[in-house]
Amino acid sequence: MQSALRSFKASIFQALAHPCRIAIVEALREGELSAGAIQERVGVEQANLSQHLAVLRSRQIIVNRKEGNQVFYSLRDPVLIEVLDIMRRYFQANLSQAIAMLEEVEAERQPQ
Amino acid sequence: MQSALRSFKASIFQALAHPCRIAIVEALREGELSAGAIQERVGVEQANLSQHLAVLRSRQIIVNRKEGNQVFYSLRDPVLIEVLDIMRRYFQANLSQAIAMLEEVEAERQPQ
DNA sequence: TGCGAATATTCGATAGATCGAATATACTAA
DNA sequence: TTAGTATATTCGATCTATCGAATATTCGCA
Fold first, then answer.
1. Over chain A, what is the mean pLDDT?
2. CATH of span A1-76
3. Which residues of chain A have a CB within 8 Å of the CB of B76?
4. What percent of chain B has pLDDT over 90?
C-alpha cells in the first residue's frame, strides 16, 4: 500500500516534469484562465497545449469548466503553488549548482 | 531566463517521477545510508538501484561520500523533504480522487 | 442549416526512460 | 598478487513521452 502512495506521488511529479506544464500551473496561480489565454502566455501550438492540459487533467491537477465556446481551467488544489514556491527557494539557495546543471543540460541539448 | 528556471524545476520533478526514486529520497529522510542499505529498504535490483541513484545524483538531489568499500548517500538539501511532506498533505486532502485515480491506473496496467 | 471559432483527439515519427544481464571499477583482506 | 565484496556502467530490448499535422467535436451565430 505504501508503494501505491509512492506511485501516486510519482505520477504527480511526472505530470509536472515538463517546462510547459509548469508554465501552465504558474499561469493559473492567480485564478482561472481559458485555454486560449493559457496558450497566449505559454506560447505553444494549440494541439500541443491541449495535450499538456490533458496530462494535468488526468492527474486532477487542474479542473475545467465549460462556458459557451470556451473552456476555463483552474488549479484544483493551490497547494501545488506552494511546491513551486519551495522549488524557487531551492533554486535560489543552490544557484551556482543549479546553473552548472542547466549548462550541462543545455550542452547535451545542442551537441557541439 | 524564466524558462531556464522552469527547465530546472521540470528536471527536478522528472528526477522524482519514479516510485523507486521517491522511496530512495524517503529512505534518506533520517540521514545518510550506504547504497546497500538503501537497496535493502527499497527492494530493487542492485544495478537498477545504481541507475536510479545516478539520476538523483545528476540532478544534485543527493550527494555521495565514499568510505572504504562503501558509498554513503544523503540528501543535499532537505527542502525536498518539505516538498514530499506537502505532497502527503495534498494526497490526504484529496484522498477520494487520488484513490479513484490509482484504480484507474491499476485498471490500465492489467487490461481485462 | 451551415459557417467559424475554440478546444480536443488521433496518428505516426522521434526521442527519452526503464529494466535485467553482463561487465567494469574500486577497495579490503588474506 | 588474488579473491571477494560493494558499487557503477554499458548494452540492447521495450515501453512511454513529446511533437506537429491532420482531423474531430462543440458551440454560437447568421
1. 86
2. 1.10.10.10
3. 94
4. 57
